[in-house]
Every structure is written in structure tokens, then in C-alpha cells.
Design a protein that fits this description.
about 5% strand, 2 domains, binds tryptophanyl-5'AMP, 3-stranded parallel sheet, globular, about 325 residues, Tyrosyl-Transfer RNA Synthetase, mainly alpha, Rossmann fold
Length: about 325
């Protein structure tokens, strides 16, 4: 059975983008993979996080994942900072990755913005830590949204260079799994920007904790254009907002964008948005309710995370110790 690793940052409430691009696929993959799911708090502090809020968000993210169907008893769920192997391997990878490689990372450019000098060093080496997350477990498949593709290519470059430099075949090649018609869910206010939990505008996203009224309002206000829906996916050219809403509908109804257009071709956005609202509400609101229930007893949740960290360490420790030995660190 292939081993899967994936992670999510506890930097806010997870969005419909996280759900459709990643979490929902994670749940489906659990049926025939050994899965390791990680709430990546080390990654979160690459930008400022209020300490109390970070701890609360880490718990809430774990609860949300379980509410979505992540199974912490059959698979492994934990917080990244609880397993020191990640930071140790990340340091080795900081010394393997080249500055030129990191300079090409588009996410760093986006997140650092205009004032790069003020960005943390952690934000710059963020992809090395991500590579360490995956390679610490010898995971071979990584389900992510489209925005993480470049980071996974880098994780393969790092593994190849490590293997080459130390003359070993130690870290395996990883395969990104970018699945479904909503691998890149866009902002509801701007079809050229990704839907993000850290966008300053709450109207730009649907949070997995939003209630029916909030969802209805956000979809009603979502940016569209004056034309009716096209009959064919080629009609999305220059219409990113239409493409996005149809993609969300397709993902939630288990179909394809073309299938949705077959049903709604020529329709105005008003009636389509009404149907989309019903679908989003029926898919999302049970997750919010279950998350609240799980957060009602944090002792159970904390015990699941502690247990997950012990099981994660048991897998990562021998792999990272061997990497350290290969590098030449004295093991006495
Ligand atoms: P993060 O926390 O930004 O997002 C978690 C997952 O959700 C996906 N995603 C989206 N998919 C579709 N549309 C969107 N608008 C959207 N927004 C987010 C992301 O692609 C991701 O799969 N660096 C990662 C976390 C990470 C990781 C790892 C992932 C750390 N270590 C190792 C895989 C393997 C991140 O910031 O995800």
C-alpha cells in the first residue's frame, strides 16, 4: 500500500477551496492508502501568528479535518511541532536546496509581496520544510490543490540532489495528486485570485464554519458577468468567475464542468446561484456542526493528536536518523 502525506496550515478557518482542493480528496484516499495528515503549525509561523490564536486554530483545524471524515484511528493525524523529525530534516534540506531554486517559488513572491526584505527567513525556506514533511515518512503520494504543485516539484529536486550528493537511493520520487474539477477554487470577489483563508475579505471565501445565511449572502454577492452560462467549457474563456462557480458546483455534485453546463446552458446567474447555494449549504453546514461538537470535548481531540504524534514519530524517527547518519552526523 502506498503511503500518503499531506498538510494544512492552521492559519485560519479552512475554506471551501481547502475542502474541494484537498480535504475531500484526502478522505476518499483513506480507503486504499496508509495516510499521514498533518496540521502544519511550523509552516504557519512563517508569517506572524498570535500565540493563543495559533493554538486554538490548530485544535480547530484538527477538529474540522475529523468532521470532514479524516479518520485519526485508522490513519495518522497530528500537529507538525509535536514531531521534531520535521525540523531536523528541514535543516538538512536547507543545506541541500539551492538559493536559485527557492528564488523561483511563486508562492514566496506572492506572500512576501513588495517588501521582500521584511519577509521572515522561514517564509523563504518554507518549501524545504514541506519537502522534509513528506520525505520524513518516505511518502510517495501527496494530494494537494493546484497551488502546491511547484513546491512538490522542488521536493523531488531536493530528494534527487540528496540521493546524488550522498550516493544513495534513499528518498523516493513523490507523485502529486491534484484531483477533481476544483483543484483551484478562486476568490468569490476576483476570479483571478485563489480563494484563501488568509484573504483580508471574508466575502471572498466560504468558510467551512459558515452558516446557511452567510453562505447564501456570499454566493449572492459573488462576482459574475452579465452573460448567461455558456453551453460548452470553451465559453469560459475570459470568464474566470463563471468557470469558478461552475467548477464548485461540479465538484460538490460529483460531476464535471461540462455536465453542469449541459444542465444550465443559457441560464442566467440568478437561478444557478440559487441551486449552487442549496448544494453548498447541504454539503458544508454539517461539517461546521460536527466541528463544534468535537470542540466541545477537547480532551478527546487532544488525546487523538497525542496518539497521532507518537505514531508519526515511530515512522519518521528511523528515516530521519538514517538521513542524519548518511550526512555524517555522529550517532553514538
Ligand atoms: P494550505 O494550508 O494553504 O492549504 C491546504 C490544502 O488546500 C489546498 N488549497 C486549495 N485547493 C483548491 N483551491 C484553493 N483555493 C485552495 N487553497 C488551498 C492546498 O493546495 C493544500 O493542498 N504548504 C501547504 C501545506 C503543507 C503541505 C506539506 C502540503 C505543508 N507541508 C506537505 C502537502 C505536503 C499549504 O500551505 O497548504
Amino acid at each position: 500500500m502506498q503511503r500518503i502525506f499531506s498538510g494544512i496550515q492552521p492559519s485560519g478557518v479552512p475554506t471551501l477551496g481547502n475542502y474541494l482542493g484537498a480535504i475531500r480528496n484526502w478522505v476518499a484516499l483513506q480507503a486504499d492508502h496508509e495516510c499521514i495528515w498533518c496540521v502544519v503549525d511550523l509552516h504557519a509561523i512563517t508569517v506572524w501568528q498570535d500565540p493563543a490564536e495559533l493554538a486554538r486554530n490548530t485544535r480547530e483545524m484538527a477538529a474540522t479535518l475529523i468532521a470532514c471524515g479524516v479518520d485519526p484511528s485508522k490513519h495518522v493525524l497530528f500537529a507538525q511541532s509535536m514531531v521534531s523529525a520535521h525540523a531536523r530534516l528541514a535543516w538538512i534540506f536547507n543545506c541541500v536546496a539551492r538559493l536559485g531554486w527557492l528564488n523561483r517559488m511563486t508562492q514566496f513572491k506572492d506572500k512576501a509581496g513588495k517588501d521582500r526584505e521584511a519577509a521572515s527567513a522561514g517564509l523563504y525556506v518554507y518549501p524545504n520544510l514541506m519537502a522534509a514533511d513528506i520525505h520524513a515518512y518516505h511518502a510517495t503520494r501527496v494530494p494537494v490543490g493546484d497551488d502546491q504543485k511547484q513546491h512538490l516539484e522542488l521536493a523531488n529536486d531536493i530528494a534527487e540532489k540528496f540521493n546524488h550528493d550522498y550516493g544513495v537511493e534513499f528518498f523516493p520520487h513523490i507523485e502529486p495528486l491534484i484531483l477533481g474539477p476544483a483543484a483551484r477554487v478562486m476568490s468569490l470577489r476576483d476570479g483571478s485570485k485563489k480563494m484563501s483563508k488568509s484573504d483580508p475579505s471574508d466575502q471572498s471565501r466560504i468558510n467551512l464554519t459558515d452558516d446557511a445565511d452567510a453562505i447564501a449572502l456570499k454566493i449572492r454577492r459573488a462576482k459574475t458577468d452579465p452573460d448567461p452560462l455558456p453551453g460548452d467549457v470553451s465559453g469560459f474563456e475570459g470568464r474566470p468567475e463563471a468557470r469558478n462557480l461552475v467548477g464548485i458546483y461540479a465538484a460538490l455534485s460529483g460531476g464535471t464542468a461540462q455536465g453542469v453546463l449541459d444542465e444550465f446552458a443559457g441560464s442566467q446567474f440568478g437561478p444557478f446561484k440559487q441551486k449552487l447555494t442549496d448544494l453548498v449549504v447541504s454539503s458544508i453546514t454539517p461539517i461546521g456542526a460536527e466541528t463544534s461538537r468535537l470542540l466541545g470535548d477537547v480532551t478527546v481531540l487532544d488525546a487523538a493528536l497525542r496518539d497521532g504524534a507518537i505514531r508519526a514519530s515511530a515512522i519518521a524517527e528511523p528515516i530521519v536518523s538514517e538521513a542524519e547518519r548518511l550526512v555524517g552526523f555522529l550517532k553514538v
